[in-house]
Structures are given as C-alpha cells and as structure tokens.
C-alpha cells in the first residue's frame, strides 16, 4: 500500500477518534447539566403546590406601602370600609382583561368598595401596566422572582395565582375570594359572591399576620 494511502487512513482514523471523544464529552456535559437542574432527573423547574387562600372569615394581614403613583397606601386606614385587594401580573393576559374593571370599581362610589392592587412584577413593568390602562386605583408592587418562594406579602395573603382577589368586609374579614380571570369572575368576588374557583372554607378566624410594607424597592 502506498505511503500516502497509509497516511490518509491514519489521519482519518485520528479524526474519527477525536469526533467520538467530542461526542462523548458533549453527552457527558448534557448529562451533568440535567442533573444540576433536576437533582434526580425530575422536573428542572419545580413549583410548590398552589397555596390555600385565606379562608372565609379570616382577618386581613396588614398591608402598607407606597403606590407606583407615589401615594401612601394602608389597609388599616381603610377600617370600616369594604376593600377589594387584587393581585395581578402585568404580562398576564387575564390581569390585563380585568384592569378596566378595577378602575370602574375604584371610581364607582355607589359600590362603596375601596380597591388596592398589588403587582408581583418589578416597578418598571408595574408602571407600564398602570400607564397602559390609565389606572388611578392605587397599585403597589412586590417582585416575585422565584415562584417557588413567594414574596412576603404574597405569602401572607396566600395568593395561589394571578389574577386573584379578596373582598374584605368593614371589619376586614374575608367575604369572598377567587381567581378573577374574567369579568364575570371579577364581579363575583367584587360583589361578595364566593367564586367557585376559590379554595376557601369558613373557619372561626385566623391570626393577624405581621405588618408588611411594600413598594419601597
């Protein structure tokens, strides 16, 4: 066999070996990355089960903060008034659907219900949400970067998802709660009709949570 043929075969053999080593290394890195993400081959993006909402009759946790409009907000200072506390995310389509309804409820004095909105996004996204819908209703924000670890206020209010809302009576006890992913569901909660999607049951009462102040980040 001619020397140049042997040389070509040797080069080809070396290339095949190097390609095999490269493929092996690639698969090894993919495997290590998978284990790093999952720990044991499970879901790489684990989520905690949805929290049980505050039960009917439970007292509202304290809620104070500065709205993105620059106004102080305090649930305590609304004592003696019915209050709807709505939790939204600016990129959530249903949250955008109910934005005009939040403003209607806020402006309609005949309904005798005050409204506080809490966004679980950052300040910039929340400000864009407020501007897009021309909201005058006070909007607080508390970023929730890790959905497996609820932010303090969202955790105290046991918000399972967005959009979600609580209606508190004049004594600031839960009258109704539920997912408000549409106008019908929103007004069910706003008017005190228990939402069939809510996982809430009457109880004798609930301990008041520690004060929480948001909107200063």
Could you explain how this protein is built, in words?
The protein has 217 residues and is an alpha/beta fold. It folds into two domains: 1-46; 64-214, Glutaredoxin (3-Layer(aba) Sandwich). Helices cover 34% and strands 17% of the residues. It contains six helices and eight strands. It has a five-stranded mixed β-sheet. A three-stranded mixed β-sheet has the order 2-1-8, with no helix packed on it. A hairpin with a 5-residue loop joins strand 6 and strand 7 (174-179). The longest helix has 36 residues, at 3-38. The radius of gyration is 26 Å and the shape is elongated. It starts with a helix and ends with a strand. The model is unreliable at 30-49 and 195-217 (pLDDT under 50).
Question: In a nutshell, what does this entry contain?
Answer:
By secondary structure, this protein is an alpha/beta fold. Helices cover 34% and strands 17% of the residues.
H/E order of the elements? Answer: HEEEHHEHEHEEHE
As for the number of domains, it is: 2
CATH-assigned homologous superfamily of the largest domain: Glutaredoxin
Strand line-up in the sheet with most strands: 5-4-3-6-7
> What are the segments in which pLDDT stays under 50 over at least 5 consecutive residues?
30-49, 195-217
| Strand content range | 15-25%
Largest sheet: 5 strands, mixed
Oligomer: single chain
Number of β-strand runs: 8
Q: CATH topology of the largest domain, anyone? A: Glutaredoxin
- Radius of gyration, whole Å: 26 Å
Instruction: State the end-to-end CA separation.
Output: 77 Å
Count of alpha/pi helices: 6
Top CATH class of the largest domain:
Alpha Beta
pLDDT averaged over residues = 75
CATH architecture of the largest domain: 3-Layer(aba) Sandwich
Shape: elongated
- Summarize the amount of helix as a percent range: 25-40%
